[in-house]
Specification:
InterPro entries: RNA_pol_sigma-70-like, RNA_pol_sigma-70_dom, RNA_pol_sigma70_r2, RNA_pol_sigma70_r4_t2, RNA_pol_sigma_r2, RNA_pol_sigma_r3/r4-like, WH-like_DNA-bd_sf. The chain is mainly alpha-helical and about 180 residues long. It contains eight helices and no strands. It is elongated.
Length: about 180
Amino acid sequence: MTAPPTITEQDQAITATVLRERSRLWHFIRRRVADQTDADDILQDVFYEFTQAYHLPEPIEQVSAWLFRVARNRIIDRFRKKKEVALDDLGSGEEDEDCRLDLMLPSPDGGPEAAYTRAMLLEELQRALEALPANQREVFIAHELDGISFKEMAAETGVSINTLLARKRYAVLYLRQRLQALYDE
């Protein structure tokens, strides 16, 4: 029977894994998270969780797969936290209430299939946001994800509130159309 690794052996193994996986994992996260600071935070969270798990008595079988799975979960968690706050304001008219994005997503507590479907929908939302014209995307993200009011945006950019409202409305309509097709599948 082999002796358990010493702390220095564990630290060396953790360091080797971080150095080996860091670049691939960061690019994986960055493709799914628009903000570089958020991507860096998620990467740090993943490696922190890895170091904690590495010190447990049970070894991690497939380290690379484990790291990517944890990264995906952290991305979903971060996106969910931002959306929980912002999507409450999405319905600005009565026709908006039955088609809110947060209601289209399966519950995160609905089991593995629901979690997988939710992750796929969130990835499609990210791609849909990237497909929007820049001015619509910027207004949508500023209002929905960053919580900036139209009044603040108008003061900051010099663009009228009505123009900002129209840009967001076009973005919402496009996102609904694109996500509805995926949701119907």
